[in-house]
TrEMBL record:
This is GTP-binding protein. Keywords: GTP-binding, Hydrolase, Nucleotide-binding. Gene3D superfamilies: P-loop containing nucleotide triphosphate hydrolases. It comes from Streptomyces cellulosae. Belongs to the GPN-loop GTPase family. The keyword GTP-binding applies. Pfam families: ATP_bind_1. The keyword GTP-binding applies.
Amino acid sequence: MAFADSDPAGRAYDGSAPAAVKILVAGGFGVGKTTLVGAVSEVAPLRTEEYLTVASVGVDDVEGVERKSTTTVAMDFGRIMINPQLVVYLFGTPGQERFWFMWNDLVHGALGAVVIADTRRLESSFASIDFFESRGIPFVIGVNCFHGRMERGEREIREALDLGPEVPMVMGDMRQRAVGRDLLLALAEHLIAANSVT
């Protein structure tokens, strides 16, 4: 892998390995986790998607996402090179309850998380929020406005998800790279703020 000789600030690169930051992308089934990782990753993302089959009928709840034909069975993986000294690795978690055991492995070493919410099925985000709150991992909420439609306002979403004002929230279409960028910047600012308090 080739790196530039200097970063955007003009500092010379000394050839050492870049610092790595691990971020999880979580949320319920079909909320847009794979889409977000694919939108922001600067390399072709690794996906572990399989087709939904009749074997999942009665096991996976597809209410509200009936047209979904594939599902993540392990994780999604993407990478963003911030500069020669810093690389961000994105790990998308599987959304179905039968794959939640993967979360316990994926969370190791994570600095923070993005929880994707679908306003049509806000309850699908409860498990992810509980998971990160119980482990003290800072997170931000990305409200996926499918096709640019905002079904609910921020105040209503915060009340439904029982979120305080300190948890950043970004609303937008997760297919758009700019929305993903804004989410990751919001998380970075949230992490900096959390560390300055402690």
